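This part of the workshop introduces the protein records we will be handling. A record pairs a protein's sequence with a compact description of its fold. Comparing a sequence with its tokens is the quickest way to learn the format. The record below serves as our worked example for the rest of this section:
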Amino acid sequence: MRRPAFSVSVLAVLVTALPGCAGRGRTSSVAPPRAGGGPVTPLPPIAPPASATGPLQIRVVYPKEDHRTVVLDSLLIYASPLEPIQSRDSAFIFGSVGRGDAGLTVNGVNVPVYPTGSWLAWLPLPDDTIARFDLVATTSMDTARAFFFARLPRRFHPPPAGGWVDTASFTPAGARWIRQDEEIRLSVRASAGSQLRLRLLDGRVIPLRGDQAPVEVSRGELAFGSAAPARLEPAAPDRYGTRWSGALGPDPGPVLAPLSAPIPTDSQWATLEATNGMDTLRYRWPLRLGIIDPARPPVGIVVHDTLGAGKADSVVAGRPAPQGVYHWFLPNGTITPVSGRWNDRIRLQLSRASVAWVDAPHVQPAPAETAPPAAIANSPRLIPLERSVVLRVPVTAHIPFRVDQTDDAVILRLYSAAADMEWVRYTGTDPFVKLIEFSQPSEDETVLTVTLTRQAWGYRTRWEGNTLLLEIRRPPAIDPSSPLKGRKIALDPGHPPAGATGPSGIYEGQIVLSIARTAKAMLDSLGAQAVLVRSSDAPMDLQPRLKIAEDADADVLISIHANALPDGVNPFVNSGTSVYYFHPPSAPLARELDRSLVRQFGFRDLGMGRGDLALVRATWMPSALTEGLFIMVPDQEYWLTSPEGQRRYARGLVEGIEAFLRERAQKQ
């Protein structure tokens, strides 16, 4: 259900509550107590900038403008955005007017202008597929006007009378493959009080009944906003569903083949009939549902790129559900049965009880003679090294596996593998390793648990022939009185490619590179060895960044960013400082970084969070990603671009890393 748009009076309150304008939006002098420590006392704010005195010129940075801007006259500009706004109810727009003394209205509502000339507005959207924004900027001597149109997501408007079916609500749609014993849920929206039937070619008629539906809250709002979590409502009067198993619609073909295009136009589609009074509407259900025989599943081979030329040490990320969070990291060349597909996601059957969904281009058909893996894991041997210990596990095939780390153990789970481990060899009595145990929770999963006397610093895996090597990193010797001395710190300035842009047009990648250089100088002066993962403006992919940090044998990896919000999230109540981690052992690092950055900046503390981000998925060292401030908010953009703001960001990084290392030193 659509939330009501803000009235003009409420909107005026929202757009004038700009964080940083006249000191608004910052934390109080003492922030609330946080888990893991006492109150955070922010430092005094830096001095605001002098008022910009450039020419009066309206510039909209977001939504993005294309290159077809047309000047209609000297004061009126028309521009069409390159990308649609992905929000239904309200949206932010931001940009600059070039002067700090200008006034600005957007759609008739006053919008504060920061001294730099930057501005940010949070506006209601019309109940339409097009939104128009009218901007007027004024000074005592000049006036500038501009307007543009933005595309909005499609909205379905039921007719005032009679029956209807929302043809965009068919779920699922496209091509899907399931097992013979599997059920899926079919769902569609139609006029309340209708009788819905699914009519099949063989004459069967399947009724659809009232279906539950979650409250409509955007994914961005759920992740970054202040909305309540999604919940199931009672059966909606205009939503219908049923359970289904078996084939449906035209044959989608082999599960590992490219999806056929164009969509078949033959008569094999199942038909939805919706009767409301005297009206009966008929639509084909846009789903091609194929069946996979679990006794003879196709076998796929995981490849890191679409050409199958991925390096042996590269990995493909897998999810427990099609839209889930990354949970597995499958080495290039992993062979596994395929048990399902939903459009561009393929389901790998790691074992009888475990599956992983991966992007379709990363799975290619194995040679025709390839059998599903059924490996034997033989007796492991522990090899002590100076800075690590290596567990060598002979396995008869390159099977999928997963590694988890706890406070006192590293756990290796082998899929499609039975254990034949009569012996476990420790090769000495290394004080770092307390115990090695194995278990067989099911006939095709083997679990090896390495219990340690201290928390591991990290781990990594690789294949050596048919032997799987799990290398567990010893904690470094940290001096509690000087925890940074001798430590290698990898600093990753986030982006390019991609990255956010502030209202003034400044690019995130430029800002964070400058901050990283400042932090490196501070770290080096304290006895650390700081490594810049990116040292130029050239674009750099994510995987090479992780490799540089690992090849440098870094003790800590920090990825430095400036934040922005997805469409539909109110920036006036959801901006500030945040830090992300992925693996639980990195949570203390994220916590200390968050506390130190909040102290340096004094803006709202959004806290630490677990984020499914590539640069925090490093396993060889603790890693975190910092979103110091929001580049899209004018006063926070100024902090990020000013020399003092960048020094504070760098100091926050150094103090957070130092506090984390000191805490770990106390546990040695």
Remarks:
- Residues 488 and 554 are 5 Å apart (CA to CA).
